[in-house]
Amino acid sequence: MLYRRRKLDLPHGKVQTPVLFPVRNIGKRSSDNTPAYVGTIPDFSTAMINARSIRNREPMWNRLTNGVTLREEMDVPEDTIVFADSGGFDFTAEEIDTTPAETLDTQAQLGADIYGTVDVPLSRENRAAENQRRIDQSVEYALEASDRHTGDALLFASVHGYDPETIRNSIQHLEKNGDFDGYALGSMVPIRTDYKKVTKLVLSARQATDKHLHVYGLGGIVYQPLLLYLGVDSFDSSAFIRSAGNRNYLIPGFGGEPLRNIESLDRLPCPCPVCGQRELDEIREDRTALTKHNLWALAIELRRFRYVVEAGRDVEEYLDLRFQGNEVTRRAYETAKQQVRRLT
Ligand SMILES: [Zn+2]
Question: Which of 123, 180, 242, 258 sits in a 20 to 30 Å window from 146, CA-based?
Fold first, then answer.
């Protein structure tokens, strides 16, 4: 097992890893708003934000450059730990409209604790040559950010690749030619249903560096235990919001369950502050409550994994049970297990 615990010392405080950065849709023109969770769910004093969409939201950006802090704008305590990615995911389809310099300026203005470098994500539909161009571009952007970066915030180089060798080479090249506090693996979301492939790619990144490893976008209830097992230090997710939108109820230890499949239940199988006192009917009609529960479910999943490790229980045995209910994820975990065993 590659699971590991570390501490990050950041401008706004310390964070114990592994940790989830729940996605805050602040700045996005979207109805999928993130409910308040900082202060309610003690595990998450963290947030992932999109630097570009905040900068492009004019009234908000004006407030932020006129003395309002990002944390005030988000209505969270000033010691909330913020990871600002470049917003590169939007460049899957759109033209790149930012530079490493402008992104760093924005991240600094926002008072982020961790900066992700500008990246141009890959697509499964792209030809190999186009994806290679994007990989090289992201590496160049990362090196430029490394040259320009000053201050106490951590700089994570965003890395992409759809084969293990490309990822390994990119990280080694960045390690040699730049100065980064960690690496953030992107472009996994478009291939997330290919668990075997994602597992191999994450493992290649984990092997290429001992520094902090973040995986963009894969902190949902199924991926979380897999990533913990593979030694990933942090991840982010908006799955708790999207699942609530789809009326999907996340259950720690199991995964997602459409609410329509369990309509006859009065009480839900979760004692979190949302579900413990309420009946299913109330939660079904309250999307914010469902979103909050889903985030609790992610916290509980993480707590449970930590418990298994701390109590000295057999993690692989726990994961055998955890994944036995779904053939696809069970096979992905089996692949991961074989690969990890070869390493350790
Ligand atoms: Zn609950």
Answer: 123
